[in-house]
Amino acid sequence: MRTNEERITQGIEQKVRALGGSVKAGPRVISHGELTPSRERICVSGRQLREVGGATLAELVKANVPPKIFNRSGVLSRIHYLSDKLGERHAIASFNISSLRGAISEASDFYRVSSTGKSSDCSPPKDLAEHIFNLPPEQWGFPPLLSIIEAPTLRPSGTVLTEPGYDAETQVFYSPTGGFTMPPVREVPSGEDLERARAIIDEVLCDFPFVDGASRATAIATTITAVIRSAIDGPVPLALFDSVQAGSGKSLLADVIAILATGRAAAMRSFPFDENEIRKQLTSGLLEGPALWVYDNVDRPMNSGELCKVITASIHADRVLQHTRDLHLPVRSTWIATGNNFRLGGDLPRRCYWAKLDPKCSRPQDRKGPHLDKRWRYADLRRHVLEHRGEILWAILTLARNWFALGGPAPQTSPVLGGFEEWSTKLGGILESAGIGNFLANTAEMHRAADAESEEWESFLSEIHSIYNGEFFTTAELAARIENREPRLIDVLPESVTARRDRDIKTVLGNLFRKRLGRRFGDSQIHLTTANRKRNNAMLWRVVVDEESN
Known about the structure:
Elements: H1 4-18, E1 29-31, E2 34-35, E3 40-43, H2 49-63, E4 69-72, E5 75-84, E6 87-94, H3 97-107, E7 108-113, E8 119-122, H4 126-133, E9 147-149, E10 153-154, E11 160-161, E12 165-167, E13 172-174, H5 191-205, H6 213-228, E14 238-243, H7 250-262, E15 268-269, H8 275-287, E16 292-298, H9 305-311, E17 315-318, E18 327-330, E19 334-340, E20 352-357, H10 381-387, H11 389-405, H12 421-433, H13 443-450, H14 452-468, H15 475-483, H16 487-490, H17 495-498, H18 505-516, E21 527-535, E22 538-544
Helix pairs in contact: 1-2, 2-4, 3-4, 5-11, 6-7, 6-11, 6-12, 7-10, 8-9, 11-12, 15-18
């Protein structure tokens, strides 16, 4: 059976021949990214740019063994090595004209021939780099890349990926941290393997004060998701690590998952206030292909159409500076947000799953109090997880591999989340097959507790209904009452209204009403309707409850 590198090499040789290049016997690369001293000499004078470009691209493709230059959803990208305060690792970077010109120079030598026939060496012309950079991506001949991973994973077929470097099946680049080792995962785990794997995971999570089994199942599911993300083709929802107060262990839990997935603590992000800033943050972040995306200590109602769009997408499209066409970035992250008593708005609640923590003590950071008088089992849990990372990853992959070995049975007890069918089916099956229950059992409770917008709008519409008694009104009439600070309305204004008080309140109400037209809130099913007529050229609105609409 051919190795992964042999398959890659054969594909590259076929592409080089298609570009008009030749394949010489013997390796051209002696280590990752280290070229042999012998380079093809390419003449740039007296030839059409397309000829020089074809020859140059053929040599660049030929030198790309093992792969470090990729086509990442139409973005010419490279794997480069970093060593900084975060440690030693590989990262994804997009090429620009200058960096591509440098890569071209590493792959080939260039020369000109004067009118007298004298040959002289030269640098690759800038227009040559521009020509290759602006070719249709399908003409580049570089392998596709979805992301970089830093832990062993499962392929969609269920096989375990442990070989460092580029994996053609998953289209990921596996870059393990230095010195990492992991016990082999059995193709068919035994009963003893499963028992030991559950015990290892329990030992890591035993001190987190989950309020119920569903919250614990969420924590385990998020950990598994971060490790086997390559085996899940579709999108994954946002994990909410929620608590009643600070110091309960939410950020620590996110760090534990990050250490397992990447070998280091999580890169914590703040949740921006402005929707445009959220979009720019997502685009710039996804360019780097992060395995984990963590919003830490969200302290306000969480609502974003941009975040909703990205969470449910396989590809994020946007345009940024220095790019003349839209970027189409693969979305392969595992999503986490931490906060106290989460409040969600818009469509975000149905894109989330929930873990609630409650230490039941006044000083959870000390783990002391009338309800809890013990400290953490490990004084430094992060260090423990890092030191035993290989063993814990073995346990996670053993649980996942067990489900594949059983034939991938569908879960019998856990629900399937709309928009996340593959994720919820696979994770539900993995947990159920491992004897871990209650997965997604708290979804309805999360919606009731965290869906701030529904609760706010139910109260707001109820007050409007009591004022107008089911009669039609215009947004101008309602805005006048709000501007006159009518107490019964001021007290129930939704955050989506108050957040836009710098704009004309009538316009704000009109925009918000149109977005919520026909949407029902609460047990009363209260909702907005419109009339098929206008008053003074203004749209007429009416608030009704279900029995009134019949």
